Known about the structure:
The chain is of the alpha/beta class. It is built from 16 helices and nine strands.
Amino acid sequence: MATVYREGDISLVGKVAVIGYGSQGHAHALNLRDSGIKVAVGLRPGSKSRAIALAEGLEVGTPAEVVKDADLIAILLPDQHQPQVYEDEIAPNMKPGAAILFAHGFNVHFGRILPPAGHDVIMVAPKGPGHIVRRIYTEGFGTPALFAVAQDASGNARAISMGYAAAIGSHRAGMLETTFVEETETDLFGEQAVLCGGAAELVRAGFETLVEAGYQPEIAYYECLHELKLIVDLMYEGGLDYMRYSISDTAEFGDLTRGKRIIDDHVRANMKKVLAEIREGQFAKEWIEDMNTGEKRLDAARVEAKGQQLEEVGKELRALMQR
């Protein structure tokens, strides 16, 4: 069993420059501030987030300005924007010895950002979206986090990463040590094969199977998408065993006798192919190429996805459920 850590020395963190104020950025900045850490937020002059961060009482400047006296620079921008901001504004202005932190290992693992020697390069990756990281912190709890060290210039990089994780509240739920490689590859695989790509396509395939067989789209939506949250909540609370304990015997029998026919050896083989593409750099190559050409492939895929019947039916039914 891996060791789960429950404490970290936040005094090692020093002043933090949080670059970006989106999902993760706002949560990290506010949690750090409420843990007693001095924080400055780096945003471009025209950023819509500037007024929001100022209203929260945070110090705000451009990335180039806030990194100059920061002991730790948390780069929490979307992956596609990090390299340019790092090269143009962070690298020329950060002070010697400043630690550089990421919440995802993609750009370091695939060589898009290469910090020079003399700087700790660390990662703290909360296992949840930013609004959850913030809300749970304010309720006195925490979001589990992974932490890792890619470059230990100070000799204290591991302790600093644990201190940062504790400062955003993750020590309350548990901190697990990893590497940039392991975090990146498992995170990409989870997103593609299960959490986003796999789950979305399973829902869509189930919905379309019922509709094509002549069942009402609204009923297909309830069965294949709406109730999914209820099942996932049970899994979250107590694992697969608790979910099966909570559902009917009929549902459990269907689960145990039919589930493996859906997720069969063919699906598992495709999962292994997806993982191989991640580990060999094929996915990163495709995504970086799309980023560098204006994300045209991503935009086209978004347009195609929005036009599905599942989405139209869902909008109508969700509107009825709003309070």
